[in-house]
Amino acid sequence: MSRRYAFNNADLIIIVGTPFDFRMGYGRRLPKSATVVQIDMDYRTVGKNRDIDLGLVGDPGAILAAVAQAASGRIDNGAQRRRPWFEELRAQETTAYEKRLPRQLSDASPIHPLRLAHEINEFLTEDSIYIGDGGDVVTFSGGVVQPKAPGHWMDPGPLGTLGVGVPFAIAAKYARPDKEIVCLFGDGAFSLTGWDFETMVRFNLPFVGVVGNNSSMNQIRYGQMAKYGEARGRVGNTLGDVRYSEFAKMLGGYGEEVRDPADIAPALRRARESGLPSLINVWIDPDAYAPGTMNQTMYK
Ligand SMILES: Cc1ncc(C[n+]2csc(CCOP(=O)(O)OP(=O)(O)O)c2C)c(N)n1
Ligand SMILES: [Mg+2]
């Protein structure tokens, strides 16, 4: 939560395994004044979209281990001097967290997307692989949901290819049958590939699916409103009030509708206990927009 502040105030930024894609404003999130070192497995990613000062191509683990080893023998490696900087960042993080907390714990109905993200974060275990497939609702969750173990996070990647949720869930459950799969969908994203929910039923691939339903492609709506004004914000992005729990049940899975935030956690638990592919359809506030969406450089 202090990333923006850290970027803006850093003199050296080391980017590891992260492309300069839309989530990084194609590199514009990094100030021109900073020295930038980029480490990546793929030489095509290094220096793409933004100039860098030093590029290192190779396994990030091996490179970082070598850097750590080179720095570890020194009596003064600068670690002490950086302490106030870390404290500054922690303070930023705490302030941002406290500002957000009331929305994360909000009892409002329709449900605030941050409350949904909060409940999902509480629900995950060390054995849950979390998949996010959606627009705004997933952008909200990105700041709240924390994977509990390495390699337990999947998202639509650098091109934001929506519709990956169900196929990712199928693949993840097949590859790691011992793991629990938890997938948060936007209603728009789910509707792209959701019919393969039936494939999951047929192949007996249980997972906990959550639809953050705002009856809209809200991230697109925000961009249209920002560019063309309120009146033209609703062109081509309104969806029906679809009860996806019924869709799940129709195909042989488990489903519940949720309108009260207090019902999210029990519904998630029942979905887990059902042992079936499931969809918990949560009605979220269509007028809440993620700060990450509002900061998108493409809307400016
Ligand atoms: C395959 C694909 N088509 C279109 C888009 C553009 N897009 C980005 S966000 C979005 C809206 C998604 O709506 P929804 O999943 O309901 O999420 P919401 O923003 O409403 O939370 C779309 C269509 C995309 N990223 N990927
Ligand atoms: Mg939506």
Helix content: 25-40%
Q: Strand order of the main beta sheet, please?
A: 5-4-6-7-9-8
Counting helices, strands and paired strands, the structural category is alpha/beta
Biggest sheet statistics: 6 strands, parallel
Which ligands are bound?
thiamine diphosphate, magnesium ion
Low-pLDDT residue spans: none
Structure summary, number of beta strands: 9
Task: Spell out the helices and strands N to C.
Answer: HEEEHHHEHEHEHHEHHEHEH
Count of helices?
A: 12
- Could you tell me the mean pLDDT? 94
- Radius of gyration, in Å, reads 21 Å
Shape: globular
Tell me the fraction of residues in β-strands, as a range: 15-25%
Q: Could you give the distance between the termini?
A: 22 Å
Can you describe this structure?
The protein has 300 residues and is of the alpha/beta class. The chain has twelve helices and nine strands. The strands form two sheets. Strands 5-4-6-7-9-8 form a six-stranded parallel sheet, sandwiched between helices. Strand 4, helix 5 and strand 5 form a beta-alpha-beta unit. It starts with a helix and ends in a 6-residue tail after the last helix. The mean pLDDT is 94. The protein binds thiamine diphosphate and magnesium ion. Thiamine diphosphate (TPP) binds next to helix 5, helix 7 and helix 9.
